[in-house]
Amino acid sequence: MSVGNYAELRAVYKPPAPRAAQKVLDHLDVHCRSFIELSPLCILSSAGTDGQADASPRGDPPGFVRILDDKTLLLPDRPGNNQVDSLQNIVENPGVGLLFFVPGMNETLRVKGKAEIVTDTDLLEPMKIRRRAPISGLKVTVDEAFLHCGRALIRSRIWDTEAQIDRSVYPTYGQALADQIAGADAKEIDDSEDEANRERL
Length: 201
Description:
The protein has 201 residues and is α+β, with helices and mostly antiparallel strands.
């Protein structure tokens, strides 16, 4: 049986505890701000007008997401493959979700809001790394922000070094793409990625 509406969904799940709704803020308080300042990684979720959803990792040194004020964040968009899936979605539909991680912490921070793509030099210049400013930035107006409990990360053992796989059990990035793309060369891809990771982060 599949769940087809909210009433059927609530028949499966108990009502949430009052605290679940009480913790949702409409701004960034001191704890949200501190979490973002400690975070080197967030996941950006977006969706186009066709309803197709996407999620993309964004990472830099801790504090890479600028806090402009209690309602506004700025995410740098660094050089990549120029596929711009997330940015294309945002042009069509500004609604985004952000999930912030801090290594060693099991709790995460969730932020929902509206994003716009900005190219203003005065906003992007302070976000330079290795003398390179971001290509653009995502200016996010915060609608909701709240801490998410640590159970998913505890169950996954994501920070436990003993849970790390032996890297040899999964092919290299180049080999995986060579298997997926006719005529692609695994070594050429891996060498290109290594060079990009050294020189163009």
